[in-house]
């Protein structure tokens, strides 16, 4: 008996049986009887052992069992009526598949966004973060991360009623951030009744891979002229994330009066729908000195350098109004954003834990799919068996990500993935690529079944990775409520397929699965690559 084994990173066989996954109880064993039976594959006849699937999943037993039974019926028919019998079997399999997979799509639900600037929203965001941390703690019991995140959340709770406000000044290089803070501290902060703190971030866009983190109750985004694409993108992200932002155009004194109105109008037009016109303010924190020439009565003249007064009235008036009317809302909005950040950190750690548990399950099912299709020469039955495998994969991965699927829902998800692969042309493209890699890289090539088996394993893996990606991007609350979007899953499938279509990945995958399949055929019957 041959036991299917998880592959080593180098693609070689391992003598160890696959690890037992207690969390989903996936235990499988692919073996074969000692006596070989002849199986006709196209124009070639090879010796294959009968495949015995020892599975503990009802869906797999039903789907693969039906596939195997129909295949056995086909092999017992007279060779003269092979084409007619194959068509009959195909119709029977299609009818059984229609009965098996008929269902309605799961109902979709929409979650409406909650308001950001009130205490209830802040407390709700903290509670959601706490739930995510508890979930992480339950699945990563030996990790110190939950305790660290809980400490951050406890500190955040104590700040819901704080009275001081934090203003962050940010922007690109040489836009006047430091000078602006100095002038505000000397001319405005000291006269304001509330406790205020102004902090400056590192210059943005200096290093695109390590931009400074921008947070605060209120952000002053400083620019020295009309905004660039990078500045617009950052401003849009801040505003869409619920951050209170003022766009401050500094150094307006360096433009002529008519140019100043043009630049201000351009800023207002570009930020329309993102920032109100009252949130876009022109200033001159440190105007350039000017040379003054004074003519004397005797015809001579004297020159002197005259320093200009900062032009900040429009900004300080707007700041005073905001801090007077929105002080507490700014604090609560900051709490909402920070709680969301803590929740995201917990979710990222949780996704890593779950992915480590999910990948071995995908690998096991991809080899089940490869072995099943490899032993089954009837295409109509391949689809039935692989869809049954995909359905069980959906259920097992859903259990890991706390997405409880009914049998009907799991069948819908599996059928949707299969249909989308065909509609998007992924099946034809991948099969052609896999065939080319088998024939051009001196990989052991088993005539008649290798391409189909490897393709089935590849599609099973793509389906599994798409589900993982979808679950990881899904809100934890939606999983608990059973909210599932087939449209979003389809988009995720396209992205995952693109990421896993690189030739280097496919070459490694083909070698790995081909090595597994070749061990199921006796040495003399193994056909080498067409290159040889």
Q: Number of helical runs?
A: 15
Distance between the termini: 30 Å
- How many individual β-strands? 11
What form results from the Cα inertia axes? elongated
Cα-atom radius of gyration: 33 Å
What does this protein look like?
The chain is of the alpha/beta class and 532 residues long. The protein is 54% helix and 11% strand. It has 15 helices and 11 strands. It has helices at 58-75, 82-101, 119-139, 145-158, 177-187, 229-240, 257-270, 313-374, 379-400, 407-423, 426-440, 450-473, 476-481, 486-499, 503-518; strands spanning 28-32, 37-41, 44-48, 51-55, 165-171, 196-200, 218-223, 245-249, 280-282, 290-295, 301-306. The chain has a 5-stranded parallel beta sheet with strand order 6-5-7-8-9, sandwiched between helices. β8, α7 and β9 form a beta-alpha-beta unit. α8 runs antiparallel to α12 (450-473) and α12 (450-473) packs across α15. The protein is elongated.
Short description:
This protein has 532 residues and is of the alpha/beta class. The protein contains 15 helices and eleven strands.
What are the SSEs and their pairings?
Blueprint: E1 28-32, E2 37-41, E3 44-48, E4 51-55, H1 58-75, H2 82-101, H3 119-139, H4 145-158, E5 165-171, H5 177-187, E6 196-200, E7 218-223, H6 229-240, E8 245-249, H7 257-270, E9 280-282, E10 290-295, E11 301-306, H8 313-374, H9 379-400, H10 407-423, H11 426-440, H12 450-473, H13 476-481, H14 486-499, H15 503-518
Parallel strand pairs: 5-6, 5-7, 7-8, 8-9
Antiparallel strand pairs: 1-4, 2-3, 10-11
Helix pairs in contact: 1-2, 1-9, 2-9, 3-4, 3-8, 4-8, 8-9, 8-12, 9-10, 9-12, 10-14, 11-12, 11-15, 12-14, 12-15
């Amino acid at each position: 008996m041959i036991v299917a084994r998880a592959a080593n990173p180098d693609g070689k066989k391992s003598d160890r049986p696959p690890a037992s996954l207690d969390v989903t109880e996936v235990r499988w064993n692919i073996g074969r009887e000692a006596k070989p039976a002849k199986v006709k594959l196209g124009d070639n006849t090879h010796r294959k052992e009968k495949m015995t699937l020892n599975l503990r999943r009802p869906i797999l037993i039903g789907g693969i069992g039906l596939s195997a039974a129909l295949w056995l019926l086909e092999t017992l028919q007279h060779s003269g009526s092979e084409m007619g019998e194959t068509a009959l079997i195909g119709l029977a399999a299609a009818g059984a598949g229609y009965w098996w997979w008929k269902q309605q799509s799961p109902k979709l639900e929409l979650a409406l966004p909650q308001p950001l600037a009130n205490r209830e929203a802040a407390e709700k965001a903290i509670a959601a973060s706490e739930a995510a941390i508890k979930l992480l703690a339950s699945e990563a019991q030996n990790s110190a991360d939950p305790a660290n995140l809980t400490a951050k959340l406890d500190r955040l709770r104590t700040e819901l009623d704080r009275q001081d406000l934090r203003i962050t000044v940010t922007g690109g290089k040489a836009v006047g951030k430091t000078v602006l803070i100095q002038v505000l501290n000397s001319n405005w902060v000291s006269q304001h009744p509330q406790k205020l703190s102004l902090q400056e971030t590192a210059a943005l866009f200096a290093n695109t891979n390590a931009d400074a983190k921008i947070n605060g109750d209120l952000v002053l985004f400083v620019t020295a002229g009309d905004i660039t694409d990078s500045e617009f993108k950052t401003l849009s992200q801040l505003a869409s994330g619920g951050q209170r932002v003022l766009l401050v155009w500094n150094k307006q004194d360096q433009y002529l009066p008519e140019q100043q109105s043009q630049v201000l109008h351009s800023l207002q037009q570009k930020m329309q729908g993102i920032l109100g016109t009252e949130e876009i303010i022109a200033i001159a924190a440190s105007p350039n000195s000017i040379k003054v020439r004074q003519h004397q009565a005797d015809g001579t003249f004297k020159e002197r350098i005259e320093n200009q007064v900062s032009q900040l009235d429009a900004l300080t008036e707007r700041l005073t109004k905001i801090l007077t009317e929105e002080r507490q809302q700014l604090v609560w909005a900051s709490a909402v954003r920070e709680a969301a950040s803590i929740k995201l950190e917990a979710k990222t750690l949780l996704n890593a834990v779950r992915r480590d548990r999910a990948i071995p399950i995908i690998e096991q099912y991809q080899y089940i799919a490869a072995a099943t299709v490899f032993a089954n020469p009837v295409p109509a039955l391949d689809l039935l068996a692989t869809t049954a495998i995909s359905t069980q994969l959906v259920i097992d991965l859903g259990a890991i990500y706390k997405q409880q699927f009914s049998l009907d829902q799991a069948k819908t998800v599996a059928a949707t993935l299969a249909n989308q692969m065909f509609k998007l042309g992924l099946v034809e493209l991948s099969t052609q690529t896999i065939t080319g890699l088998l024939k051009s890289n001196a990989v052991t090539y088993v005539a008649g079944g290798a391409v189909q088996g490897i393709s089935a394993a590849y599609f099973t893996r793509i389906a599994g990775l798409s589900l993982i990606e979808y679950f990881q991007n899904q809100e934890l609350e939606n999983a608990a409520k059973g909210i599932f979007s087939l449209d979003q899953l389809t988009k995720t499938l396209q992205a995952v397929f693109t990421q896993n279509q690189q030739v280097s990945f496919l070459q490694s995958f083909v070698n790995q699965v081909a090595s597994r399949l070749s061990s199921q055929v006796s040495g003399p019957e193994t056909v080498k690559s067409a290159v040889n």
